[in-house]
């Protein structure tokens, strides 16, 4: 093999390898860029729930194992997106541990934020385990409750 061909092959192989080992891009933003759009993030969560609900309908309407498998995969992927958004965006970046000298109300709000975030993660998990619309409704209710709590604390400034 000629040197230039070997060099080209090596460069292509290294480029392909670098794409396969890079971490996937998750929720915005794990560096302190200061650009957040909390309303858009909640809209994404709502869209994921709508997709889960439509997938549950698709499972019920499905006439083949192939279609059923595709609907189940779609439902589980969107439930996972919700879990990831709650972990990476809200728990890691938006829910702040109160300072040591925090007021009781700040500690209570922190505890409520954690509780509501956890409820969403568990509700999303339950939509993976079943094709019950009631589980998807419970997930939407949990997201709505957290949205109301979140914006009551932070307003719509982000």
UniProtKB/TrEMBL annotation:
Pfam families: Sod_Ni
Segments passing through the bilayer: none
Coiled-coil residues: none
Signal peptide limits: 1-27
Domain of life: Bacteria
Entry annotated with the keyword Signal: yes
Keyword Transcription regulation: no
Keywords of this entry: Signal
UniProt name for this protein: Superoxide dismutase [Ni]
Protein's organism: Hirschia litorea
